[in-house]
Amino acid sequence: MSPSSDVLTVQVDSTDSSLAWASLGDKRWRCVVGAGGVREDKVEGDAATPAGEYPLRHIYFRNDRLVLPKVRLPARPIGERDGWCDDPQSPAYNRLIHLPSSHSHEKMWREDGLYDLVVVVGYNDDPPEGEWGSAIFLHIAREDMSPTRGCVAFARDDLLELVTLIGPATRINVLSLSAAAQKPAPAVDDDMKPFEDFDEQDW
To answer: What is the value of pTM for the model shown?
Structure first.
């Protein structure tokens, strides 16, 4: 397990919410996960964010839309013909590809701004296997913080801050247990303790 200062922890508010908090050291940001929730058994196309701990690989960014601050992860600008393969039948599955492509893929060059800044999560990539999912990124969220298709998304300014704090040793840990489920059960009032073992047969 990585030291806590090198782990970006993501935890949803509750099982029926895509809103979450991400924390790294003493920093904390609001974020959003996939519409399919957080799953330990993620598969391609389920819109779920995979639970577990993973490395962070690379940064891709639109240099026509933002100035990338100083970062420690490898970074390069996104090109107009960049794509990401999400076809499990392709040898390039879960890899950056050059478009056009006959295989199913996402375009990295987007008009909506969501991929103006992207951090690639090292999920199912060493090597990619089966249909366990692809294109898991940290990226910019929609203004209404609506759910993603499986990525973890942040407000633009928050992600710009976050990328300056992560490096090759940083890992992301997406918790399967929600914050609501993690809350301890209410303490039993001392006056009620005599009734804890009460049985109707005692009457």
So the answer is: 0.89
